[in-house]
Specification:
The structure holds 2 protein chains of 2 kinds.
Chain A (H helix, E strand, L loop, with lengths): L7 H10 L6 H22 L29 H5 L5 E2 L2 E2 L7
Antiparallel strand pairs in A: 1-2
Chain B lengths: L7 H9 L5 H14 L6 E4 L3 H13 L10 E5 L26 H8 L3 E6 L33 H8 L5 E6 L5 H7 L2 E4 L19 E6 L2 H11 L29 E5 L3 H4 L5 H13 L3 E5 L7 H16 L18 H12 L2 H14 L5 H24 L2 E5 L15 H5 L6 H6 L3 E8 L5 E8 L4 H16 L1
Parallel strand pairs in B: 2-3, 7-8, 7-9
Antiparallel strand pairs in B: 1-3, 4-6, 5-6, 5-10, 9-11, 10-11
Helix pairs in contact in B: 2-3, 5-6, 7-16, 10-12, 10-13
The chains are: A mainly alpha, B alpha/beta.
């Protein structure tokens, strides 16, 4: 059974993919915890699944509904939860000069 | 009439028959919510609840006969109720106000429910103790030094402490059943798709369900009749008629084939739950049940399988929390990248970050096939193994948890030990089948334990019947 080694670089890579930042101490503390969790999920990596086929839902989906246009939530209501809006849009800092 | 002693069914009947008003019942429960605030089971008691109760009284006077007419209900904080905050016990969504109702809320309101409060939970439903709430741990209703379980710990505590006759939870890996067990109440995770998930903040969409937590099995069956049913808003919801679950409760287990899992025999030995587990088997046997040993050979892989699928889906589902659309934006962020990273880093708690990282690990290039795809194939293998088991038994009987509620802080800094809390409950989520926890027996410190009954898809009525039987014997 191969044991997956977790390095500081790997944790940094995952933090980047996760759009999360950590202090160096937090990152270091992550490694032993993460190694333990990966050891747990490695049982799946190393198991024999025979000829089981891939299926992305555990149940058959119900029949699809008719594709009809229906009213959605009003724009102003959707924007109510945004931290910053302007003229009916979500507002973020300028991205291009 | 002692309102606190009435079951949900008795209460709804009394209100419909005008022996009690919704106002007095709602006031009674809201007063209880305030009295027991130190439990920290609730994040908010809704200030319009008494007005809604008055409105409901007028409606009932005019002949309204909804199944929940005037009955107070508590919802978990990840269920949207229009105009109210739904924070998922996260700082990220601390001020997020729902702009529409979850389907389950719509269904309850149509039947006349008065929603009185939102309950504490583990942040984004990730946890087994409510210790991961950004707003403080909930205490166990029976011992304040112990956890109430989780993630629906606030909901289970609320019902056990008599803050409402019913509360809604969500269950992704045991999050209804484990807290129900820890607080001595009844909780069901219905068949995947039986209840619409529309308007429930998603954690692991392919395995989670909403379900009721109640004091009795009959109340639970009554409540599921309200919640169940397909919805055009949730493509995974099953567009099938809803059973009359109460009529399936017969009071007998004669001839019932009770499956006991060969694979847990070793695991159960010496655990706090052993006496309760063996006692429940004996009880059913003595009353005409046939005990059958069954095998789900890969049972032990359900836990790691879950800890691949659930974080993978959580990572995707929580990607929407970017500091632009919902609630929180970091004050220190200067550009768009910083908005994403700083808002998420400040807004999410440690366990949520851990699971997002784990999700990205199993989904990332080079690992996807080895973990995620493999887990999804394993899930199919487990479903096939369970189908075989259900050919020879009607229900599976398992403990809900290894033992009674643990002390607050006992599992700090040990995520894997916390994950193993879900050892017996996770299988039902991975399989998509219904599972209920009913109180049976006590642990070493005298805290309640739960027995879990699992059946094949859509056989909620069957597990209600067995759970009701066990519950009645427990009371005796």
């Amino acid at each position: 059974m191969t044991k997956t080694k977790i390095t500081i670089e790997e944790v940094k890579r995952l933090a980047g993919l996760s759009a999360l930042e950590f202090s160096d101490e937090e990152l270091a503390a992550f490694i032993p915890e993460f190694e333990q969790i990966v050891e747990l999920v490695d049982e799946v990596k190393n198991c024999d699944i025979g000829d089981a086929q891939l299926a992305y839902t555990s149940h058959k989906l119900s029949d699809c509904r008719e594709d009809q246009a229906k009213p959605s939530l009003p724009q102003e209501e959707i924007l109510l939860n945004s931290p910053k809006t302007k003229k009916g849009s979500f507002c973020v800092p300028k991205m291009l000069d | 009439m002692d309102i606190g002693k009435l079951s949900l069914i008795e209460l709804s009947t009394a209100i419909r028959e005008r022996k009690l008003s919704s106002y007095e019942v709602t006031k009674y429960y809201i007063d209880k919510c305030h009295e027991k605030a130190e439990l920290n089971a609730l994040l908010e008691i809704f200030d319009d609840a008494l007005d809604k109760a008055k409105e409901m009284d007028e409606k009932i006077d005019k002949g309204f006969k909804g199944k929940l007419a005037g009955v107070p209900v508590i919802i978990k904080d990840n269920i949207l109720y229009k105009g109210k905050i739904a924070s998922c016990s996260s700082k990220f969504l601390e001020n997020y106000v729902a702009q529409y109702n979850a389907d389950v809320v719509t269904k309850m309101l149509e039947q006349g429910a008065v929603i009185i409060a939102r309950a504490n939970m583990d942040e984004f439903a990730m946890g087994s103790s409510t210790e991961n709430s950004a707003f403080g741990v909930t205490k166990n209703a029976l011992d304040p030094t112990r956890v109430p379980g989780g993630s629906s710990g606030g909901s289970a505590c609320a019902v056990a402490a008599g803050l409402a006759p019913v509360a809604l939870g969500t269950d992704t890996g045991g999050s209804i059943r484990q807290p129900a067990s820890y607080n001595g109440v009844v909780g069901i995770k219905p068949t995947y798709g039986r209840v619409s998930r529309f308007g429930v903040v998603a954690f692991a969409s392919s395995i989670e369900q909403v379900g009721p937590i109640t004091k009795t099995v009959r109340d639970n069956a009554y409540m599921l009749e309200v919640l169940a049913g397909g919805s055009e808003h949730d493509e995974t919801s099953l567009k099938l008629p809803v059973n009359d679950y109460l009529s399936e409760i017969t009071g007998s287990v004669k001839g019932l084939r009770v499956g006991v899992l060969k694979e847990i025999e070793e695991a159960v030995r010496g655990l706090d739950c052993e006496n309760s587990y063996r006692g429940a088997i004996e009880l059913l046997k003595k009353n005409g049940g046939e005990i059958v040993e069954v095998s789900i050979p890969d049972f032990k892989l359900t836990l790691p399988c879950y800890y691949i699928i659930a974080p993978a889906e959580a990572t995707s589902n929580l990607g929407r929390f970017d500091g632009v659309k919902y609630s929180r934006r970091s004050k220190d962020a200067k550009d768009i990248d910083e908005i994403y990273v700083k808002s998420r880093s400040e807004g999410f708690g440690r366990e949520v970050k851990r699971r997002i990282m784990l999700g990205n690990f199993v989904l990332s290039s080079g690992y996807f096939d080895a973990y995620y795809n493999k887990a999804k194939k394993l899930q199919q293998k487990l479903i096939a193994e369970a189908k075989e088991a259900f050919k020879v038994c009607d229900v599976l009987l398992l403990p809900t948890t290894a033992g009674e509620a643990f002390k607050i802080g006992a599992k700090d800094g040990d995520p894997v030990s916390m994950y193993k809390e879900d050892l017996f409950t996770i299988m039902a989520n991975v399989l998509g089948v219904p599972a209920i926890s009913v109180p049976y027996g006590k642990g070493k410190a005298g805290m309640p334990l739960g027995i879990q009954l699992i059946a094949d898809s859509l056989k909620e009525g069957l597990i209600y019947n067995v759970a009701d039987f066990i519950e009645k014997q427990e009371v005796k």
